[in-house]
Each structure stands twice: as C-alpha cells, then as structure tokens.
Amino acid sequence: MKLSKRRAIFLAFCITALCILLAAALLLHPSSDLPAQPDYSPSIAKAIKFFEGSREPYALLFLDVIYRRFGIVEFADALQRYDQVLSERPVNAPTLSALRRIADHDNLPTSSDLFTAKMQGEGNYLTIPALYCDQLGLPAGYEAMFEEAVYSGGYLLTHVLLAWIWIQENGCEVALPDAFIEFMYLSNAALIDFDPLVYDIELEAAAFLYLAGQGALVNDTFVERVITAQNADGSWNTPDNPDRWHATVLGLLLLLHVEFPADSYPPMLVPA
Fold first, then answer.
1. What phi, psi does 241 have (nearest 5°)?
2. What share of residues in the chain are helix, strand, coil (percent, to 5)?
3. Which of 43, 126, 183, 235 is 20 to 30 Å from 133 at the Cα level?
4. Residue 60: partners with Cβ closer than 8 Å, 6 or more residues away
C-alpha cells in the first residue's frame, strides 16, 4: 500500500515537472510553432502608389471611401480630384453627378441627371435609387427588381449587394425576408471560386461583402491568390475586365479590410 502511494506521488511529481518544462519552452520560444500572421502592407502600399495622381472618377469615389474608412492620407484629396473631373462635363457626367452623394450627403443632382444616371451603367436602376432612398424613397416595384437581380447573377448580383449597403446606411426599409438577404450574401460569396486566376467580379464580390460586414464569407485562400496576382506596379489586371483601375481599387479595398479588421467601420456613405 505504501509502495503504491509513493509511486503515485512520484508520478504526480514527474507530470508536474514535465508541464513546467513545456511551459518554459513555450515562454522561451513563443512563436516557434505558430504560423506567422500574413503581412499585407507591402501589397497595400504598392496599390496606393498605383493611384498617385489618378483622374479616374469612379476610382476616386472609392478612394474617398478608403480615406474616410482607413485614413489613407494619400487619398485625402480624392473628392477634390473627382470634382475637377466632373467640372469638365464628361460623357457620363449625369452618373458622376448622381454618385457624388457617396462623398457628400447633401448632394442632389437635377431630376434629369438622376433619370439619365439610372439608364447608364449596369445595375444603376438599383443603385441610384438606393443612394437617394432617404430623400426620394424607392420606386414602386423595387423589391421585385431587387429579387430578379439577385437571381440574375454576375455584376447585377454584386451591384444589388452594393445597393443593399446603401439602403441600410440610409436607414430605408425594403420588404425582403431575412432568409433572402442571407441568400444574397451567400450568392455573392459563391462568385468566388477556386480557379487560380483572379477575376474582377470575384474582387468586386469580396470587397462588397467586406463593405457589408460579411467578410467572413470570403475565404483566406482567395486573399492569398489576390496577393500572388498583383502586378509589380501595384495593380491587378483580370481576364474579365480590361480596366485595371477597377480591379485595383477593389483589391486595395479588400486587403485593407483584411489587414485592419474591426467590429465596425465608418459608413461607406458620408452621414448627414
């Protein structure tokens, strides 16, 4: 009986000593067996550099969002650059005039410009009303158009997600079931496949999901593919869209959200 007790004491002593040794090893080498946290800052810095002096108006609106959300000082003058381009009255001036509300809550273009803006660009008939829904309300039948766009897929699907972000930020109400909104999120996430090539529509779906607070639906392997696909000048060019600025502003927006995670961010739209 005494022998069993001594063995038990000895065994307990050995286990305790082993635990102490393991704890000491971890303290001396705390990260030896832990994977290093990816550092996206070099890719982010290159993408920021790519937009130096840019006069692409649609990109400038997103750069203004990036400035307000992440404090990227290189984009502090994005709205001023945008207004300079707008003052030259390009062909798409009605749409640019309407979209300016992203950066200026009090922006209200003429009825003619608003009507024309809805006709220009894929999905504008959804996004422009969403952008002004707190001032002008939503048109009759908007919910039906919203649902149809989700089922259509492609860029209509990503644009309806953008419209939903603006509807939420403007505090407007749309009679759509929660299950359908969840389906919309999942459908956007499904646009991101496992093809080694990075496509513009994948970048748009990923960036908009993060803007909508649904970044958890974007898998980490896609982010790594985005890093690998970046060009030396900081841009991305994709097989499905020749406009490098488009993929690049989306890639930058995505990486900033991944690099600087937060429970909440400043809204995409400038508040009142």
1. -155, 120
2. 65, 0, 35
3. 183
4. 54, 78, 79, 81, 82, 85
